[in-house]
Design goal:
ATPase_NBD, about 25% strand, binds adenosine-5'-triphosphate, cell shape, five-stranded mixed sheet, binds magnesium ion, 11 helices, Nucleotidyltransferase, domain 5, 18 strands, nucleotide-binding, alpha+beta, 2 domains
């Protein structure tokens, strides 16, 4: 699925709906939305209590009749109506009015390279419900490659690893297209879960899911590498008694816990390399791997992947924004057309 750059240039708005965050780029205005893909719903009345950051903060703190839902998972919209309501609120009145003034609103949306027709339909319907008369689908990894400044149109191969919240996509790109790619159902969420499980099993400590990030941050810098501190102290709740207590956690053990789900990612990279034509693999030894997506910031992940592949690894600037900024560059006409495939547009 290589979308026509000509069609993309005619789009007014680009949307990247991720399992963790939703981002919107409006032509002429830039990045206008970067918020958690979350909505808090009052189940008695059906009304929305909050969206985005506010809704995410409510997770685990609401009375029974308020549910925090995530309408997107693994690059797929699973609840079209809720996704529309969430997007409408995130855009806000002013922006919606501006967009409504466009007689034929054109929108672009990112989808994983191997998303099935049903998933693509769900993305398209979500945006059609917001008033788009035409929706262009863009490969997430291609958009991200553009966004992090990789020479996508070159005949030299580049490998990009998109570390999202629900999935990790590994792809080799050459001449503006994907040569081989894999989507692995492991991402930041699975890593957070691995840490929570480790604490529960080994320290009988329950941690709210929002507290995993501070733990990772506490370990950042050299944190999750061997040079980091041996132990770190964290606060949680005792599994049995429910009383708050703090424990000293062995960082090497946390590192091990985090690496377990990551073996699937290493396998995925291996599969991509095996399927890749030998000439391109030779290129990759020089060009190396570019990491994008929010989980690329996980301390030590770049080194782990470098050790596993023996290739140089670099994390993109603002890795979580690469996809949306790449689509933005395409909308603004900053990308020179080369691979133009007029078949890849949809209503
Ligand atoms: N500094 C950080 N350290 C570790 N992990 C991080 C950091 N910042 C963000 N993350 C993780 O990155 C993930 C979000 O990344 P991103 O915004 O790329 O996801 P997404 O696009 O919503 O997900 P997907 O593409 O899988 O649908 C979350 O799982 C979050 O925990
Ligand atoms: Mg994403």
């Amino acid at each position: 699925m290589t979308v026509s750059l000509e069609n993309l240039r005619r789009c007014h708005i680009a949307v990247d709906m991720g399992a963790a965050r939703t981002r919107v780029f409006v032509k002429g205005a830039g990045l206008v939305v970067d918020e958690p893909s979350c909505a808090a719903v009052n189940t008695r009345t059906g009304s929305l209590k909050a969206v985005g950051t506010l809704a995410e903060r409510m997770t685990g703190r609401t009375p029974d009749y308020i549910r925090v839902v995530r309408p997107v998972t693994g690059g797929t919209v699973i609840d079209i109506e809720m996704a529309q309501r969430m997007l409408r609120h995130l855009l806000g009145d002013k922006l919606r009015r501006q967009l409504r003034r466009k007689p034929r609103l054109r929108a672009a949306a990112s989808t994983p390279h191997d998303s099935d027709p049903l998933a693509q339909r769900a993305t398209i319907e979500t945006l059609v419900g917001l008033g788009a008369s035409r929706v262009e689908l863009v490969d997430t990894v291609i958009a991200a490659a553009v966004g992090c400044g990789l020479p996508v149109e070159d005949a030299t191969a580049t490998m990009i690893i998109m570390c999202g919240a629900a999935t990790t996509q590994v792809a080799v790109l050459s001449i503006g297209s994907i040569v081989t790619a894999q989507r692995i159902p492991v991402g930041g969420n699975a890593i957070d879960q691995a840490v929570l499980q480790y604490l529960r099993h080994h320290h009988e400590l329950v941690l709210p899911s929002q507290s995993v990030r501070p733990l990772q941050l506490a370990l950042s810098g050299n944190g999750l590498t061997e040079e980091g501190p041996m132990t770190t102290e964290i606060n949680g709740r005792d599994v049995a008694t429910g009383v708050a207590r703090s424990v000293k956690v062995d960082t090497a053990a946390v590192r091990e816990a985090i690496y377990t789900p990551l073996t699937a990612v290493k396998d995925g990279i291996g599969r991509v390399l095996r399927e890749c034509p030998p000439d391109l693999v030779a290129d990759l030894a020089d060009t190396g791997i570019r990491m994008v997506g929010g989980s690329a910031l996980l301390p030590g992940l770049d080194r782990l992947l470098g050790d596993a592949t023996g290739m140089p690894v670099a994390i993109a600037d603002q890795p979580d924004l690469c996809t949306i900024l790449g689509m933005g560059a395409m909308l603004d006409g900053k990308v020179q057309p080369l691979a133009v495939d007029p078949t890849a547009s949809a209503h």
